[in-house]
Design goal:
single chain, mainly beta, Rieske Iron-sulfur Protein, Naphthalene 1,2-dioxygenase Alpha Subunit, Chain A, domain 1, 18 strands, about 15% helix
C-alpha cells in the first residue's frame, strides 16, 4: 500500500517549473519608460520569475525580456542599468546588448565580444499583458500562441494580484475539483464537470455550477479556457456575463504570482453584478490560499468515483514539464 511521504522538508510538489507563456505584468503597471508612448525613455524592469532573475525593457519597437546578469562580469542589468537607442547598458562597465542579446559595443574596446550574449525570451502583448516564452532548453521556440481572450466590447471592472506559496498545477486543479466548492466555499450543491475539449496546450471545460439566488438554487455555466500553464479565462454565465482573465507566473519552484482582471459584458445586468461578483471570486480564491500553501501533491491519489476529471486534468498538465 502506497503511503504519502511526510518527511519534513520534502518537496511538496515534485514537478519542475513548467514551460510556456508567462506574464511579466500588465502593460499599465510597467514603468512608464517601458510603455511605447511613455514620456520617460530608458527604463529597465527587474523581476524574478521561472526561478531566475530577469530584466525587461522596451526597445522602441517591442518589449524585450532577458536574463539579468551581464555575461562580462556578472553585474545585474536591472540595478542601475539603462536603455540607450533600444539597447540595454550594463551599469558596471557599460557593455551594451541589443534586442537579440548580442554584445553591440564595449566603450573601451575596438571590437565587441561574440561570446558575450544574453539569453533572450520571445515576447508577445495581448489582453493588456506582456508575456514571455520560457522553456529550459533555450533552443525551443514557442510551441503555441495565445489569442486575444478579452473582447473589445468587454468592460474592465476590477483587478487583483497575489503571490502564493504553491505550484500552478495545484491551483489550476481547483477548477475541476467540484467537491471543494461545497466544503470550502459553501456552494449549496456539488456541481459537475461537463464538456471537455483538449487541443494540445489548450483545454476548454464547461462546468455546471450551483448558485444560491433569490429564486433559490439554480444552475449556472462556468466555462474555463486554459492556454498552457500561464493563462486562463473563465467565463461566468448566470444572469449576466463576467469574464475573468487570470495569469499565473512561476516565481520559483515553490511560488507563483497570480494576476486577475475582471470584465463584464457591457449590458446593465452584467454591470450591476460585476463588482460584488468580482469580490466574491477574490474571497473564494483567498479561502483556498492556506490550503494550497500547506498541502502537498499526492502522485496517486485515492479518489472518489466521480473525481475522474482530476486524473484527466493531470494527464493534460503533464505535457508542460520538460
Amino acid at each position: 500500500m502506497a503511503t504519502v511521504d511526510a518527511t519534513i522538508g520534502a518537496r511538496r510538489f515534485p514537478h519542475p517549473i513548467p514551460f510556456g507563456w508567462f506574464s511579466i505584468g500588465r502593460v499599465r503597471d510597467l514603468p512608464v519608460g517601458m510603455i511605447p508612448e511613455g514620456a520617460v525613455p530608458g527604463e529597465v524592469l527587474a523581476l524574478q520569475a521561472i526561478g531566475r532573475d530577469l530584466v525587461a525593457w522596451h526597445d522602441g519597437t517591442t518589449y524585450r525580456v532577458a536574463d539579468a546578469f551581464c555575461p562580462h562580469l556578472g553585474a545585474h542589468l536591472g540595478v542601475g542599468g539603462r536603455v540607450d537607442d533600444g539597447c540595454i547598458v550594463c551599469p558596471f562597465h557599460e557593455w551594451t546588448f541589443d534586442g537579440e542579446g548580442r554584445n553591440s559595443s564595449i566603450p573601451y574596446a575596438e571590437r565587441t565580444n561574440a561570446k558575450a550574449r544574453l539569453r533572450m525570451y520571445p515576447t508577445a502583448v495581448a489582453d493588456g499583458h506582456v508575456r514571455f516564452w520560457y522553456h529550459p532548453d533555450d533552443t525551443v521556440e514557442p510551441r503555441w500562441e495565445i489569442p486575444q481572450l478579452v473582447d473589445a466590447s468587454m468592460v474592465h471592472c476590477g483587478s487583483a494580484e497575489w503571490t502564493v506559496a504553491s505550484a500552478w498545477q495545484e491551483m489550476a486543479e481547483n477548477s475541476i475539483d467540484m467537491a471543494h466548492f461545497v466544503s470550502v466555499h459553501g456552494s449549496p450543491e456539488m456541481g459537475e464537470v461537463g464538456e471537455v475539449h483538449e487541443d494540445g496546450p489548450v483545454r476548454k471545460v464547461v462546468n455546471i455550477t450551483k448558485y444560491t439566488t433569490a429564486q433559490g438554487v439554480i444552475d449556472g455555466q462556468l466555462k474555463v479556457e486554459m492556454y498552457g500553464a500561464g493563462t486562463s479565462v473563465t467565463r461566468f454565465e448566470l444572469f449576466g456575463k463576467i469574464n475573468l482573465l487570470s495569469t499565473t507566473t512561476p516565481v520559483d519552484d515553490g511560488h507563483c504570482t497570480i494576476r486577475m482582471d475582471f470584465f463584464h459584458g457591457g449590458d446593465d445586468v452584467s454591470a450591476s453584478i460585476a463588482e460584488p461578483f468580482a469580490k466574491e471570486v477574490q474571497r473564494q480564491f483567498e479561502q483556498d490560499v492556506p490550503i494550497w500553501e500547506n498541502k502537498r501533491f499526492v502522485e496517486s491519489p485515492a479518489l472518489a468515483p466521480n473525481e475522474k476529471p482530476i486524473t484527466e486534468f493531470r494527464a493534460w498538465a503533464s505535457q508542460f514539464y520538460a
